[in-house]
């Protein structure tokens, strides 16, 4: 399997490439189901998409969206939540109906039911049209940590210490519990029509180099990208130098 592989000068250029790829698919499949990662990685990409929608270069009114992952037990209104990032950089900036967006309720009493709801939403909408993913320093995709099955649907996960540590930067309150997450599964992501992994900065170098070795291993979830029918990897020079 060949990977469409882009190495750009910096984060801004990475964001431009990812946004162009996504906008092309949105124009071709305006009523598709789209999954965008939260957090810092896709901020530049999402801002470009938002600007395109604001300038009426793209119509998002028919598209559906689903949240990739969320911190369990943290109010989604918290500024550090994955949903807050998505809203701040895209969904609050463009005129979409909230019915177009499926999110996890990380405060729900029955988190397994939240997983089932996400699975059902994906199935009812014919699967994921496109997924935009970041990659963790430990190689995770979404909150699919090392050791995760490549066949999983949405599930609850105990987060690795590295993920918990990196997560500190998102929250003003360091005492926030970051031990559990809820996430779409790699099995669902691999069924995406288009699967894009975006990475920038030296901290992501180890995970991306392990991917580029070509060995598929559950201990580095980003290597599952090799199993996708038409995968895309977009990185900056810091990741590969």
UniProtKB/TrEMBL annotation:
<feature type="domain" description="Glucosamine/galactosamine-6-phosphate isomerase">
    <location>
        <begin position="11"/>
        <end position="225"/>
    </location>
</feature>
<dbReference type="Pfam" id="PF01182">
    <property type="entry name" value="Glucosamine_iso"/>
</dbReference>
<dbReference type="InterPro" id="IPR004547">
    <property type="entry name" value="Glucosamine6P_isomerase"/>
</dbReference>
<dbReference type="InterPro" id="IPR037171">
    <property type="entry name" value="NagB/RpiA_transferase-like"/>
</dbReference>
<keyword id="KW-0119">Carbohydrate metabolism</keyword>
<protein>
    <submittedName>
        <fullName>Glucosamine-6-phosphate deaminase</fullName>
    </submittedName>
</protein>
<keyword id="KW-0378">Hydrolase</keyword>
<dbReference type="InterPro" id="IPR006148">
    <property type="entry name" value="Glc/Gal-6P_isomerase"/>
</dbReference>
<dbReference type="InterPro" id="IPR018321">
    <property type="entry name" value="Glucosamine6P_isomerase_CS"/>
</dbReference>
């Amino acid at each position: 399997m060949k990977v469409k592989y882009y190495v750009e000068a910096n984060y801004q250029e990475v964001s431009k490439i990812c946004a162009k790829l996504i906008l092309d698919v949105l124009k071709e499949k305006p009523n598709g189901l789209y999954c965008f990662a939260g957090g810092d990685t896709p901020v530049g990409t999402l801002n470009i998409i938002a600007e395109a929608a604001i300038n009426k270069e793209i119509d998002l009114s028919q598209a559906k969206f689903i949240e990739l992952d969320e911190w369990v037990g943290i109010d989604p209104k918290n500024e550090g939540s994955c949903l807050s990032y998505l809203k701040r950089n895209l969904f609050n900036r463009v005129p979409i109906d909230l019915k177009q967006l499926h999110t996890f309720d990380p405060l729900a009493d029955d988190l397994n039911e939240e997983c089932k709801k996400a699975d059902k939403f994906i199935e009812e909408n014919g699967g994921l049209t496109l997924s935009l993913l970041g990659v963790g320093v430990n190689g995770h995709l979404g909150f699919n940590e090392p050791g995760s099955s490549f066949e999983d649907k949405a599930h609850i996960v105990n987060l690795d210490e590295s993920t918990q540590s990196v997560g500190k930067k998102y929250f003003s309150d360091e005492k926030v519990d970051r031990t559990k997450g809820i996430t779409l599964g790699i099995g669902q992501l691999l069924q995406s029509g288009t699967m894009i992994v975006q990475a920038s900065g030296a901290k992501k170098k180890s995970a991306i180099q392990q991917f580029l070795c070509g060995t598929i291993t559950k201990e580095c979830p980003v290597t599952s990208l090799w199993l996708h029918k038409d995968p895309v990897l977009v990185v900056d020079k810091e990741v590969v130098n």
